[in-house]
Design brief:
With 429 residues, the chain is of the alpha/beta class. It folds into 3 domains: 73 residues, Udp-n-acetylmuramoylalanyl-d-glutamate--2,6- Diaminopimelate Ligase, Chain: A, domain 1, CATH 3.40.1390.10; 202 residues, Mur-like, catalytic domain (UDP-N-acetylmuramoyl-L-alanine:D-glutamate ligase, 3-Layer(aba) Sandwich), CATH 3.40.1190.10; 126 residues, Protein-Tyrosine Phosphatase, Chain A, CATH 3.90.190. Helices cover 31% and strands 21% of the residues. The strands form 3 sheets. Strands 6-7-5-8-9-10-11-12-13 form a 9-stranded mixed β-sheet, sandwiched between helices. Helix 1 packs across helix 3 and helix 3 crosses helix 5. The chain is globular and about 75 Å long. The relative contact order is 0.09.
Length: 429
């Protein structure tokens, strides 16, 4: 199918190529028989990849137009997007597209875990959720795969439209509308409009967080804690090891137990549950699987280092996800002293000061042993706590690490900040 879809795009037969399997963008990872997509600086490695055994190179540098096994296009990224779209059109595959301000990756992980009980498939790996990463993921789908779960990120208008036009998802998901990207988008209304670009490309149904003031206006399957949702979540029991909860619809009431902590993860799970319900797979298998779900690293990941239990949620941060993380950390049984380490939330634009200060309420209502704040934006929050001796601002992560190491008794440490803050570096080796 990959060969056929490529031939349809370039309008010529690739008689010298029997099939196309593995597609690579990193010249260092080329193996014999791979196809190399020369993205940006990749044009400098065309000849090297051919020497390593690449069966085909696609680049946008005209100086290679007469070299055997090289296809020269106007723009490699644009061509890659068109190729991915054509390839998906030829495949008989179930596509799930996921966007939203927070929870995309965790929702993707749960959806993938659930669907994998019934079919073979793939999902977006790492941060391959943009205009390059999504088509690359699509082009590495095998013809044996029966589904793909695609995460879609954005920072402006038109990006979700582009990705959704490639993916044409059977089921579209929007997790929530938060404050991420306010630096570029200015208002949450604009973020909602940009995220909603997925709707017109979705073939069967949208699933959204019905508790979200923006998303509840969409014609979609709605999940959430409010009673007016199609899938209503109710927490039955919560501790440091698991949460028991129920998912209620007009026609059913299912009791589940999960190893994932936090109400935000119940939203992610219920979104995936609603998808499985829509498709019509066996819910009993799903309920059993929910007890042992696996998330991508740095999503409320527990890491024990001596007397310190790190709750590593440092992959990214926004006001919504920061609040979710702090509230979940609060609710954990106080088996040890609790330390909160927060780094700057980036890309919040002119509202950054206000949104950082806005975390005061969620932090001030709990007796944390220490609150360590890191970064220039967190200085705004620190100044609201000047009367609290247990709240300290730092400009160096190494200093936070030293403070944590001073504790000889058991402590639990929450790490939460934007990706650029790299708070995971605080974790002791």
């Amino acid at each position: 199918m990959k060969k056929k879809s490529l031939e349809l795009l370039i309008n010529e037969n690739l008689d010298n190529i029997d099939s196309i399997e593995n597609i690579v963008m990193d010249s260092r990872k080329i193996s014999k028989g791979d196809v190399f997509l020369a993205i940006r600086g990749g044009n400098d490695f065309v000849e090297e990849t051919l020497e390593k055994g690449a069966k085909l190179v696609i680049c946008d540098d005209k100086k290679y137009k007469d070299i055997k096994d090289v296809i020269v296009v106007e723009d490699t990224v644009s061509f890659m997007q068109k190729w991915a779209k054509k390839y998906l059109e030829l495949l008989d595959i179930f596509v799930v597209g996921i966007t939203g301000s927070n929870g995309k990756t965790s929702t993707k992980d749960v959806v993938f875990d659930y669907l994998s009980l019934f079919k073979n498939g793939k999902k977006t790996e790492g941060n391959y959720n943009n205009h390059i990463g999504l088509p690359f993921t699509v082009l590495n789908i095998s013809e044996k795969d029966e589904f793909v779960v695609l995460e879609m990120g954005m920072s402006g208008f038109g990006e979700i439209d582009l990705l959704s036009d490639i993916a044409k998802p059977n089921i579209g998901i929007i997790t929530n509308i938060g404050d991420s990207h306010l630096e570029f988008m200015k208002t949450r209304e604009n973020i909602f409009k940009a995220k909603s670009e997925i709707v017109s490309h979705t073939k069967e149904a949208m699933i959204v967080n019905g508790d979200d003031v923006f998303l509840k206006t969409l014609d979609a399957i709605k999940i959430g804690f409010n009673e007016d949702n199609d899938y209503v979540i109710k927490v039955l029991e919560s501790n440091s090891e698991h949460i028991e909860f129920q998912i209620k619809t007009k026609n059913s009431c299912d009791k589940l137990k999960t190893n994932l902590l936090g109400k935000h993860n119940l939203l992610n799970i219920t979104t995936a549950f609603a998808l499985i319900d829509k498709v019509g797979f066996d819910k009993d298998l799903i309920i059993k699987k929910t007890e042992d779900l696996k998330l991508t690293k740095m999503r409320f990941e527990k890491i024990q280092r001596g007397n310190v239990l790190y709750i590593n949620d440092a992959y990214n941060a926004s006001p919504i996800s920061m609040t979710f993380a702090i509230e979940t950390f609060k609710e954990l049984p106080k088996e040890s002293k609790k330390i909160v380490v927060l780094g700057d939330m980036l890309e919040l634009g002119e509202k950054s000061k206000e949104l950082h200060e806005g975390l005061y309420d969620v932090l001030s209502t709990n007796d944390f042993e220490k609150i360590y704040l890191y970064g220039p934006e967190m200085k705004n929050l620190y100044e609201k706590f000047l009367d609290k001796k247990n709240v300290i601002h730092f400009t160096e992560k190494e200093e936070i690490k030293k403070e944590i190491e001073k504790f000889s008794e058991p402590v639990s440490v929450l790490l939460k900040g934007s990706r650029g803050m790299r708070l995971e570096n605080i974790i002791k080796e």
